[in-house]
Amino acid sequence: MDRDPGYAISAVLLWSTVASAFKIALSEMSISALIFYSSSFSTLILLISVILQGKLSKEIFSAKNLKRSLLLGALNPFLYYNLLFISYSLLPAQEAQGINFSWPVILALLSPVMLKQKISVRSMMAVVISFSGVIVISIRTVSLSGALVALSSAFVWAIYWLGNTRDNVEQNVRLFLNFLFGSLFASLPFLFEFEPPSLSAFYIGAFEMGITFILWQKALKLSRNAARTANLVYLTPFISLIFIHGVLGEEIKIRTVAGLILILTGILLQTRTKMEMKKDK
């Protein structure tokens, strides 16, 4: 057993609430305001974490680091959350989160291009299975454009994740720098029109990336088996459905559950393929 499973369980439960929080926040404020306030609050939380860990130094603000974070911050949080929140504004929460959840298999699709890795037949099967899940969720959707935007957000997240794999900077530090620049991009609309925040924006800032990310990192650090602990995150979209139904009142559709199962099957097949490839090396 892990030394303290509470960190992982807390992170999964908190992440399971954010799909509902997105819909509530979007009913209270504009997308641009939501991105600005939530990403700024996340930046503050991550800054405090970096300071408490003693990792704030002049070296992290080198020209190379800032240039890289400028690009990564444009991807996440700025572009990623713009696309994600647009999809949530067009789709029921269950559909938006289900389609966005396909990002781990999109990694397998993009890795051969960005990291010059070979893709196996089983990996291609995983991609096909997961995308069939996306199609199942999208059948009879209220907005085909919303489904395409949700899928685009998954691609952006996968590209962002792959961009970070080439980086030797400590993860918390890099995330802080990325969010710092992302928040600056998000502040641009406020040069023309100010909009007051809502509590839901701060909730998202804290529990979508800020505090919850720190909890998750702690869970992986304390885990005796990081791979097994990491698999707990795959429970998130299913637990999220409980909150979506209970808080938002959405009727959970059979095709949503079926699509999520297909997407998760593809992800697990891809994960198992990677583990077997590592053992063979």
Brief write-up:
With 281 residues, the chain is mainly alpha-helical.
Q: What features would you highlight for this structure?
A:
281 residues; 0% strand; mainly alpha
H/E element sequence: HHHHHHHHHHHHH
Uncertain runs: none
Please report which band the strand proportion falls in: under 5%, 5-15%, 15-25%, 25-35%, 35-45% or over 45%: under 5%
- Computed structural class: mainly alpha
Radius of gyration: 19 Å
Choose one word for the global shape.
Answer: globular
Proportion in helices: over 70%
Structure description:
The structure is a single chain. With 281 residues, the protein is mainly alpha-helical. Helix content is 76%, strand content 0%. It has 13 helices and no strands. Helix 4 packs antiparallel against helix 8 (144-165) and helix 6 crosses helix 8.
